[in-house]
């Protein structure tokens, strides 16, 4: 799953640094399913400082978008800065957003722990 980079943005990148907002817009336009999942969890953190998405993607293309967005350091960190959250990711569909101050909580530690990862496994998820 690759980004669809407009020619003008590619030319700016070839010439030097690119504005975060332009990059985030490219991600939004290139990975619409991932954008919708991440914007949903980011916008619903609310008073709890935490929100989670645990619905499997409708297809392989959407799964690829989510994996691409969260596996790329540049994309993930840009999305975290844009939405003001820390993203946590367990598998092809379980994504959480935490308010930055929530990264010291038990909920965050449990979600990102080895134990949390193991408990989130099942035979139907082994291929995701």
How would you explain this protein's 3D organization?
This protein is mainly α. It is built from seven helices and three strands; from the N terminus they run αααβααββαα. The chain has one domain. The protein is 52% helix and 9% strand. The chain has a three-stranded antiparallel β-sheet with strand order 1-3-2, covered by helices on one side. Strand 2 and strand 3 form a beta hairpin. Helix 2 crosses helix 3. The model has no long low-confidence stretch (mean pLDDT 88).
Task: Summarize the SSE layout with pairings.
Blueprint: H1 7-15, H2 20-30, H3 32-43, E1 50-53, H4 60-71, H5 73-83, E2 86-89, E3 95-98, H6 106-111, H7 114-119
Helix pairs in contact: 2-3, 2-5, 3-4
The gyration radius over C-alpha positions equals 15 Å
Class derived from helix and strand content: mainly alpha
| Count of distinct structural domains | 1
Largest sheet, spatial ordering of strands: 1-3-2
For the report, how would you describe the main beta sheet? 3 strands, antiparallel
Tell me, briefly, the overall form.
globular
Pfam families: KH_NucS_shadow (PF20704)
